[in-house]
């Protein structure tokens, strides 16, 4: 017997939404830190650092995230029998590895988008590579990286639904469980979709606020204006 969808069924969905936020926040922060390192290394004059970061970014970006999740959860314990990862840990590792590659590419593109004259001016003032990177390049690259970075975070929120395949009860998995209990998949997944929308739209609002605060939208608008206006 199925029970009609009721207010009590919102509780597991809300818990699933909180677990989705926790998962993406953990993986996003760790992945962003690693991604910045990879992005900086890919623009480094040192060939070894540039090669290693390029190989990692290209390999991970060329593999579907579902395959990465399966490899972390099922493959690693087969290769290392003493290694025991929980479902949450496996999901975090998989999404972190995925995030690091994409954030690294965003950082690489943002650094290369900074006008070459900025780097030349810093070198003329006697700045070393790391000092130039810290005080001149990265502050400007950060502003450039925010819009695509926000877009990636929104994509990460939606891609996190794939960890349901290993049994981690995030929002999508919670929706599947509630749908099976109530026999009402339409109502259940309409609510699940609405929750994803609220999370993603909230993140996009934060991105817009940051752009207005830093003047990124003003700069881009001026760049689009024809000469003489």
Keywords:
229 residues, mainly alpha, MetI-like fold, 9 helices, 0% strand, flat, disordered C terminus
Notes on the structure:
The chain is mostly helical. The protein has one domain: MetI-like fold (Orthogonal Bundle). Helices cover 79% and strands 0% of the residues. It has 9 helices and no strands. Helix 1 (10-42) packs across helix 8, helix 3 packs across helix 4 and helix 6 runs antiparallel to helix 8 (185-214). The protein is flat and about 75 Å long.
Write a brief structural summary.
By secondary structure, this protein is an all-alpha fold.
CATH homologous superfamily annotation? MetI-like
Low-pLDDT stretches are 218-229
Number of helices: 9
Helical residues, percent = over 70%
Count of extended strands: 0
Strand content: under 5%
Number of folding domains?
1
* CATH-derived topology: MetI-like fold
What oligomeric state is this? Answer: single chain
State the distance separating the first and last CA atoms.
Answer: 70 Å
CATH architecture: Orthogonal Bundle
